[in-house]
Amino acid sequence: MFTTTPLIRKKQRNELIAKCVFGGMALAMIVPLIVIVTYLVVRAAPLLSWEFLTTNPSGGMRHGGIWSALLGTVYLVTVSLLIAAPVGVLAAVYLNEYARESLFTRIINLAVVNLAGVPSIVHALFGLGAFVLFAGIGRSILAASLTLAIMTLPVIVASTKEALAAVPVSFREACWNVGATRWQTIRGIVLPNSISGILTGVILQVSRTAGETAPIMFTGAVFFKKIEEGDPFAYSIWDQCMALSMHLFTITTQVTEAPKALPYATAVVLLGAVLSVNASAIALRSYLRSRKKW
Amino acid sequence: MVAEQNPLPAKIRVKDLRLSYGAKPVLGGISFDVQENEIFGIIGPAQSGKSSLLRCLNRTIEFVPGASLSGSIQIDGVDTSSLQSVYELRRRVGMVAPLPVGLPLSIYDNVAFAPRAAGYRNKTDLDELVQRCLSQAALWDEVKDRLDSLGTKLSGGQQQRLTIARALSHKPEILCLDEFSIAIDPVTTMRIEDVLKELKREMTIILVTNLVQQARRLASRTMFLWNGEIVEVDKTEVIFSQQPKSRKTYDYVNGIFG
Predict the structure, then answer these.
(1) Largest Cα–Cα distance in chain A?
(2) Does B117 contact A100 at a Cβ distance shorter than 8 Å?
(3) Per-residue pLDDT reduced to its tens digit, A166-209
(4) Is there a contact between A100 and B67 (Cβ–Cβ < 8 Å)?
């Protein structure tokens, strides 16, 4: 018969406790995000407007908008990903599809892992030494983007390798068995079925790149720069630029008597840009997953 | 060396083939011939090296980390390890692996994959080829109205027949079948066996099977592998007779091992 013994009651109680603890931790993940976003938006509200996005800062950063910083960030992210994505993806294809297990590939894989662990300030100093001074590029969007690219490369390599490895080996073997070359196999089967993962990995680096301050501080970002308002091509890659992350840092720490809402408004724009990029990555991934072919 | 006087030059001549994965020996120096247009059966328990042997024939063994082999495999008198194009070799040696693999492409593209990889683009030729290969693999009637649907969405048995169709699509001279009937019902298996009997006019077939009766039905000669060694190669009638050369063979084909 079904009777409730003390043992069963104890099990039920433990089950309830476990569920509450795990659920509570999961909830704790969302709370900071909601609090941060709400707090920022409330504090930033007085300043948020289209005009804020499209006008240069003025009056020693105390007035105006964030146009030159916003466009600078867009430039840095775009140029650095244009460099890092092809190199990273192709390197990962080599490592996952062509390379045999050898000392050489083990060293590369080790380098990838370790490079990902290098602090961003070290990347900054490397960028300053290698690109700005040694290569003679000078402080510029290009030098800063190269530095950011070096920083994102290992992560793109790692995420791409993971996406490629998710395609079953049996597919490759079936292709090889009918006399297809490695490249025919990669082009016909492997890439079409891993592109969603590869793209997601690359897009997620947008947010990381946009948020970094240290690597661009010595290599191309400046305190203040006035550019043509409303012109999306106002920068050249040889120019120095402002950037949102750096702008946020300077107005918070270096500018006295700035309007209280200014840093919050800047943070909201940065956060909004990052979250919308992440959201598009998630949307892309779920769209491509729905078309998964096995 | 004296020139070969054999009236029937072997299609495949395996000489002293040794294979090991790292320190683990898989094939211990085996030699045998396969004649043109015969069905050559290979039987033997798990781990006896049957599948590895097939992978040596089309040199996909090279993808196995740690595999090292010695000895020679000649096809039409040419040592396969000396071939310039391993892809050409793999087109000439069709391979049906034991686990069915539908590529994540349409059924049509699954079959057209190999011809396209070899450079054939003509739509009418491809259409004809796809229909012929699917028919030979006893799959055409089931899929002819949905050639656009994904090969990966077929049932296991259908995917196995798709794999056979794909192996036929590059018109191999040698067809290696590794446990092709593992996922197929007995009726369909019989239909494919009938096709194989037809196909041996055009090609040489190597049939690896755990179903000893299948070897008995199809193979003209059968080889019994045991732990990477050949126990016996002979006419199938002899292998399945009351007096094969080895007692082991008799025990194995009659299921009295243990």
Answers:
(1) 85
(2) no
(3) 999 999 999 999 999 999 999 999 999 999 899 999 999 998 89
(4) no
- Burial group, residue B20, by CB count within 10 angstroms (0-12, 13-18, 19+): middle
The 10s digit of each residue's pLDDT in A111-129 is: 888 888 899 999 999 999 9
CA A65 from chain centre, in angstroms, equals: 24
Q: A240 CA to chain B: closest CA distance, Å? A: 48
How far apart are alpha carbons A193 and A292 in whole angstroms?
8
Spatial contact of A91 and A78, defined as CB atoms under 8 Å apart: no
**Whole-number pLDDT of residue B8:** 62
Whether B5 shows a pLDDT value over 60: the answer reads: no
Cα–Cα dist A169/B65, whole Å: 14
> B58 and A184 in contact by Cβ < 8 A?
no
Quote the minimal CA–CA distance from A29 to chain B in Å: 37
Average pLDDT rounded to a whole number, residues A226-236 = 85
pLDDT for the residue B1: 42
Q: Where are the domains of chain A?
A: 1-44, 50-290
Angle between helices A195-211 and A141-165 (to 10 degrees): 150
Domains of chain B: 12-99+161-252 (3.40.50.300)
Identify the CATH assignment for A50-290 out of 1.25.40.10, 1.10.3210.10, 1.10.3720.10, 2.30.42.10.
1.10.3720.10
Look up the ipTM and state it.
0.86
Nearest CA in chain A to B167: A178
SS (H, E, C) B32-86: EEECCCCEEEEECCCCCCHHHHHHHHCCHHHHCCCEEEEEEEEECCEEHHHCCCH
- pLDDT at A146 > cutoff 50: yes
Q: Which of B95, B99, B104 shows the shortest C-beta gap to A177? A: B95
Q: pLDDT digits over B119-162, tens only?
A: 998 999 999 999 999 999 889 999 999 999 999 999 888 998 99
Kind of pairing between the strands at B174-178 and B204-208:
parallel
